[in-house]
Design brief:
single chain, alpha+beta, two-stranded antiparallel ribbon
Length: 133
């Protein structure tokens, strides 16, 4: 009997297989294992947003208009002064965003169509377990 394990020959991280002759018990198959390294991954669980037609969105837009209208462009004489103004603009708009945006948790119901009616219906079903709900 031939036991097979397919590995990518050019990836040394995957070429660390082991043949376990002592694990075969009554079978004539030798068990083969490979350890696959898994890198740590950041999974975002929240984000900042401005809800449509909200007071926060209106405040953010007003603040951005104010920031842009207050930019002094009279001293833009070279690339360095332009970059300074752009960096200041970037910092101030980011501050306006952080001030006005709302933090929301990302979850399985974080879809645009999911609303409070959906929450109520789901809660009703969970309580009753009736398929009509």
């Amino acid at each position: 009997m031939i036991d097979l394990i397919f590995l990518h020959s050019r990836l040394s991280k995957l070429n660390n297989h082991a043949i376990h002759l002592d694990w075969r018990l009554t079978s004539n198959h030798a068990l083969l294992t490979v350890t696959i390294p898994i890198i740590e991954e950041f999974v975002q669980t929240s984000k900042l947003l401005l809800p449509k037609k909200s007071e926060e969105k209106e405040a953010f837009i007003k603040e951005v208009f104010s920031i842009i209208s207050s930019i002094n462009t009279s001293n833009l004489l070279n690339q360095e002064s332009l970059e300074q103004v752009i960096n200041l603009l970037s910092v101030r708009i980011k501050q306006a965003w952080n001030t006005n945006a709302r933090k929301v948790n990302i979850m399985k119901h974080s879809k645009k169509w999911w609303n409070e009616d959906c929450n109520r219906s789901l809660s009703k079903y969970r309580y009753s377990r009736d398929l009509d709900d």
